[in-house]
Every structure is written in structure tokens, then in C-alpha cells.
Design goal:
Blueprint: H1 9-20, H2 27-36, H3 46-52, H4 57-69, H5 78-86, E1 91-95, E2 106-110, H6 111-128, E3 136-140, H7 146-157, E4 162-166, H8 169-179, H9 185-204, E5 209-212, H10 214-217, H11 220-227, E6 236-239, H12 246-256, E7 262-268, E8 272-277, E9 289-292, E10 297-302, E11 315-323, E12 328-341, E13 356-362
Parallel strand pairs: 3-4, 3-5, 5-6, 6-7
Antiparallel strand pairs: 1-2, 7-8, 8-9, 9-13, 10-11, 11-12, 12-13
Helix pairs in contact: 6-7, 8-9, 9-11
Amino acid sequence: MSLLRDITSDDIERVMQAHFDPVSGAVYWINYAREKGFKPSDVHGLEDFISIVTPTGKRAEEYERDLAHAPLDSFMPHWLRDQVSSGSEHIYPGETGGTTGAYPKRGYYSDRVWSQQLAFGNEDLNIAGIPEGINWIWAGPTGPHAIGRYALELPRLRGGMAFPLDLDTRWIKIAMAELGGLTGDAFTRYMGHIAQQMARLLEKEDIQAIFTTSVILQRLEEVAEKVGFDLSELQGILHGGTALMPPEHQVLREEMLPCVPFTGLYGSSITGADSFQKPLEPEDEFAVVYVPNSPMIHLRIVDPTTKEDVGFGEEGQVVRYRFTDDFLVPGLEERDLATKVKPYGRYAEQLPGDFWLANIHSAARQLKGQDEVQGVY
């Protein structure tokens, strides 16, 4: 049975009780409800939650700041703190890469919710046709970023293992700003450093799958050639972390990796791997289309100015929600932009949700006066 399903009123009411109950809830959310003048019993479904609970305007900016600066345990419900104290639950903190806003934002996962995250990922890889029992290379952030732990544990859950290469997203951002931007010497040297490590693993280890960014995937052919690795022997590709637009996607799927099962993940350190790429169909025209891991996660695409939901076929700003009992994300505005897509084709009835997201990319920004860039590695 699929873990994916639509969000129900019961899901929302359970989350409201877990976080906003005046006795057992979280200090931050109890104070937030008092400030806004609502009770947990006022919220019964997703529409109620968005209209009553989701922070807007200046309060949305304050919430983003609080995720960076407020004590992490202020977001933790009292009932969960009791379980952590007794040893029946454990908490795993994580930080974002600091791309959106001045500081990295922080969240955490309990054992139970982390297991649910891995279960969603396992289902995603099964839908993509990637086999179990294979070994992976993970070239991506580790350290405080939740995706690093996820990328190591997911292959282990499936009977394989992952060999990690670290990408320090914060450092490369600083280096690019100081030494020439995205196309400067810093980026070239850093990518060469990653390519060298990946080539060594392809040469020395029994590797059947790779999880990395789309930027690194586009250099995979030259890496493989250095050590005589046949890319057609790969049994799985998983990408995430940087935008993959239709022209580049088409080259990867038709020319570089034509017969390799291929999928992508989209998420953040505080909501997790919250969406997966649906299997490619001709109707996609090589757009990368993501399906949210509902009911744990809900995503909205809104007009950046009005904050109202956009229509199908329109591009807007991504807003993230995490509806789990351990940690709540009630609507975090991201730098990312995406097109809202009405479900279509073979998977329209098989996968839940009223809409999907296509061609997710980051709004352009500048690094210390350099040319506008997207992504950091």
C-alpha cells in the first residue's frame, strides 16, 4: 500500500493538538497562538490552517528569523521533550545551507518521523524502478544538513551502502563570491576536486548508483572516462539540490544515461526530502515534475507579491509546510520558483494531490556584486 495520500482534516487536527495544546504543546507555538488569538479547536482542515495559522507579511519574516535564532527546543512540544528525556525518542537537528536569508535555519527529526521520511524515499525509488541491494556514491552536503544523513541511510535501508563525498555549500558560496563568481576559478577548482574523488570511487569500488546534484551529473561523462567506467552499467540516478531544466534533462536522459533509472528529490533540511520526481512520460517534454510527499508535506505555489495561489501553468514562489507531530513548518517562503501543474498522464490517478510542481529553480541573486547566479554548487 502506498504511503502517499491526500491530507485530511484529521491530519491537521492532530498536528494542531500536538503543537498548540496549552499544556502539552510547544512554547513557541503556544505563544504564537496567543499572539494571533486562535485556539487549536479553531482549525479543522488545510484551508483553515492556511488562513488562520500560516504567518504572513512581517510575521512571516519574523518566523524565518526565529528559525535561525530561537532556541530549537522552543519548537519542541512538551510531550516530545518528555519522550526524549526518557530515552524513548531521539532528536536529530539539521540546518539549511543558508541560501535563503542571512542565516541558516534549523529544524529536527524524531526517530519515528525520520523513519517515515526514509519510507517515503524507499517508495520513491521503487516507483522509479531503481533496484535494491546496490551501492551508491553520495556527492552532496553532509555536516549539519539533513540530506547527508538521509543519503547514507536510504541505501542502507535498501540493502546497499553509500560512499560519501562532502560538498560544503556555505564555503563554496563564500569562495565564489571572493574569487570570481559561479564561472570563476574557485568554482572550477572545487568541481575538479569533487570530480577527482568521484573518479577514484568509480575506479576502486563496486558502484551501481549515484546521488548528486544536476550540476555534477552534467560532468559525469568526463569523470567516468578518466577511469574507464561504463555509465550504462549504472542502475540508478538520483539528483537534487540544483535546478535541472528541460534542455539539460533531455541530454542526461537521451544521450548520457539513456537506459538508467532516473529520478530526483526536492526538499530542505527542515522539511526533508519532501517531493520526488515522477517517472518521465512523453507529455512532460523533459520538464522535471515533482510530486509532494503528502500528507507529511504540503507545498503551495504563490504569487511573490500577493501571496495568493497561482493558477495551473503559472510560475510562483514555493511555500513549504511540514505536518508532523514532532516539528511544524506552517508555511515557509522559499527563494525557489516553480510552475504549478495539473496532474496528467499515467500517474494522475495513482499519485495524490491537486497539483504537481515543474521546473523548480532558484530566483537569481548576486554574490558580492558578481553576476547573478542560481544555486551554490
